[in-house]
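Quick one: co-fold with s-citryldethia Coenzyme A.
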Amino acid sequence: MIGMADAKPQISSGLEGVYIAESSICRVDGQAGGLYYRGYSIDSLCKNSDYEEVVHLLLHGRLPKAQELAETKKVLAESRNLPEGVVSTIKHMNGKAHPMDTVRTAVSMLSAYDPEVADSSNEANMRKSLRIISRTASIVATIGRIAAGGEYVAPDNSMSHSENFLYMLNGKKPTPQQLDIMRDMFIIHAEHSSNASTFGTMVAGSTLADIYSAVTAGIAVLKGPLHGGADEAALHMMNEIGDPDNTEVYITEALAGKKKIMGFGHRVYKAYDPRAKVIKTYLLQMQDSSSEEVKRLTGIALRAEKLMIDKLGQSHGIWPNVDFFAGPVYRAAGIPAEIFTPIFAASRTAGWCAHMMEYWENNRLFRPLEYYTGAIDLQYVPIDKR
Ligand code: SDX
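Sure, here it is.
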């Protein structure tokens, strides 16, 4: 007999349109294409701030005073060094696992080195958040470094978060342009309200699991190509297109085959993603790049953007999102595709931790319902009678 529950309830597939909490951390204006961290637009933060100041803003709800910023930078810098066990795990997984799996594993492993892991006080969670934010960046840089055949580079605590990331990744100081790109990428990927990975973090933390467990859940969710994995997938698509002159045919055929074009569309933005605009400014600076690869990728990206907006922009609300232009710009900064999403994770640790601590202030276990349509009350049949 099929379950005959009460009248079928309204089901919100993918929780579309469902509000799960009140929050003062981030406003995503999907219609106008605006993004605000604690009331400040990402444009103003990219122009005036840096990632460490954005971390303080997200975690504490306001811009820091000079002494507070100095203290945040000091704690982040002093937390950068990785335990030997974490470095050897990264080495062990190199070439065997996708870098996002290595990030997920290494961040989870950090909990074994944190004496406060079980302390759920807000003060301890604030301290753990800074350690997670700092060390996840070191983990991602080390993954990229070891994948390129290098050895672990000890952090330079005199450098900023973004500068040290590139230093640990490449073993040398970044150029001014690389540093500008990295700082803005860390800022614009830091937070985005209740996206899938932040929601995953909150679901884990709503059981009162510790913040390392919650962030590990966020990393696992971010990996998917419908979410954070789209930046790497978009670059793979551009490499498949190969020559800018193939762009229109490739995209048209993909759409005709009902394929999703990675880096476009969004559950909330029905306008141009403001983060894509920030990244595109760097792309436009690279059109005459000396690198053949960057010139080719830039040509493809700009032609794909025009075609997708013509076909699906106004009519379907499908616009470029944060993941579309990231690939060519990261490549121009010498960053390998396999650590695009890991960088997203390193930056988003700030948003995950901020939402987790905010949610814990009025915690409630997440436990949604399913409308049961299966059989009920069946009689058990012995195996020789089936
Ligand atoms: C991120 O939520 C966040 O805030 C996430 C994020 C963050 O900072 O945390 O902003 C980061 O994840 C950005 C999104 C990265 N993902 C991609 O670029 C993957 C490609 N995009 C799509 O998969 C899609 O647009 C989603 C998943 C992003 C959003 O999809 P929805 O809201 O579930 O919408 P849908 O898949 O139901 O699409 C509605 C229609 C469908 O057509 P029909 O079946 O109705 O005919 O639009 C079409 C889709 O086929 N469509 C696309 C498309 N995105 C939607 N068609 C072609 N290419 C696309 N990219």
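If it helps, The chain has a mean pLDDT of 96.
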